[in-house]
Amino acid sequence: MKKKTLVIILGQARADKLTWTSFKTYVLDELKADLALCIGESPNNNSSNFYWDHAKYRWIVPEYEDYGEGFDQIQLERYGHITNWRRILQVRNQWLGGIKGEGEHPGSAGILIYFRAKLFDFIERENLTDHYYRFIITRSDFIWEVPHPNIERLEPNFIWIPYGEFYGGVTDRHVVLSEQNLGAYLNLIDPILEDTDDLIRSMMAANPKPIWNLERYILFHLKRINMASEIRFLPYMMYSVRDRSTPTRWAQGVYDTELGYYIKYPTEKERTALTKKFLTFRSGKLILLSNRLMVKVLKGLYLLKQRNIIS
Questions:
Q1: Separation of alpha carbons 173 and 183, rounded Å
Q2: Nearest 5°: phi and psi at 150?
Q3: Fewer CB atoms < 10 Å away: N or C end of the chain?
């Protein structure tokens, strides 16, 4: 029976000098997992980078000035033709950043949709579902403060994500998947390319306001394919960082003089501190609760933190 887990770094293998030790200890070693990179072209893709040096699989994705060209290529490969799918840019305002065209969006969310599609193609091409039971898609710029829960504790029928950083949807920064839901989660690109007009109608009917982002689109997509009910939540165990030289397409972060690096999303660090203090055993292992209870506890802890009742 397949028992192995593949941990995948998506996008960029950055901030390795800050994050590698905690990642190796609390994720790779904890889960006895293999490491894969699905990252863009970069001069830093070499053995001086800890992630690159330790990866079993290295998949390099082209970097485009206009990632719409990458969308075109995928549409040609999957459907045999290229259409005017860019009219979807009229659904505003930042869920397709990185794609040029009339009404183009800020940010980089469109790039992340492209990377997910390429990742699925790589996994399919190498038949990795024959070798791996679970797939964890995450970031290289996380500092981990709590060990990742053993994969056998996470029911494979569900999509496991951290609770928080939702921005009207669900966070895109970390997810635990299995063979059953891998394609459904990763192929966010197919509705865009397969039937653009239908997707425009569906999204505008769901929310005509110009507030679409990647988090909202992921949740919308999972609802549309009747998989939103399969979402389950984990507490935050990590937070994103960068040093002064680490490139970033979006959040610059807040510099912490005591730690000596930028915290990209301070709320992630707050949530992780709450997890470490209130939701771990003495051994440091994560306490897992039923989903409904977990949501109540995490909401309650964060509310108490915001009101300065707990620290």
A1: 17
A2: -55, 135
A3: N
Q: Does residue 298 fall inside a structural domain? A: no
- Detail the DSSP E strand segments found in the chain: 5-11, 34-40, 57-61, 134-138, 142-144, 159-162, 175-178, 231-234, 238-242, 254-256, 261-263
Q: What is the distance between the alpha carbons of residues 236 and 31, in angstroms, rounded to a whole number? A: 17
Please check whether residue 67 lies inside any domain of the structure.
yes
- CB atoms < 10 A from the CB of 282, how many? 5
User: Which tokens is 195 given?
Assistant: 């039937």
Residue 274 tokens read as 């709450």
Task: Give residue 83's domain range.
Answer: 5-238
Q: Which two tokens stand for residue 289?
A: 């609760």
Token pair 């893709």: residue: 45
Among candidates 11, 222, 188, 166, which has minimal Cα distance to 88?
A: 188
Note down pLDDT in tens along the chain; length 311 residues: 567 999 999 999 999 999 999 999 999 999 999 999 999 999 989 999 999 999 999 999 999 999 999 999 999 999 999 999 999 999 999 999 999 999 999 999 999 999 999 999 999 999 999 999 999 999 999 999 999 999 999 999 999 999 999 999 999 999 999 999 999 999 999 999 999 999 999 999 999 999 999 999 999 999 999 999 999 999 999 999 998 766 565 567 899 999 999 999 999 999 999 999 999 999 999 999 999 999 999 999 999 999 999 98
* Within-domain flag for 277: no
- CATH number for the domain harbouring residue 61: 3.90.550
| CA atoms of 256 and 182, how far apart (whole Å) | 37
Name every residue whose Cβ is closer than 8 Å to that of residue 187 and which is 6 or more positions away in sequence: 116, 117, 120
Report yes or no on 230 lying in a domain: yes
The number of CA neighbours under 13 Å toward the Cβ of 223 is 11
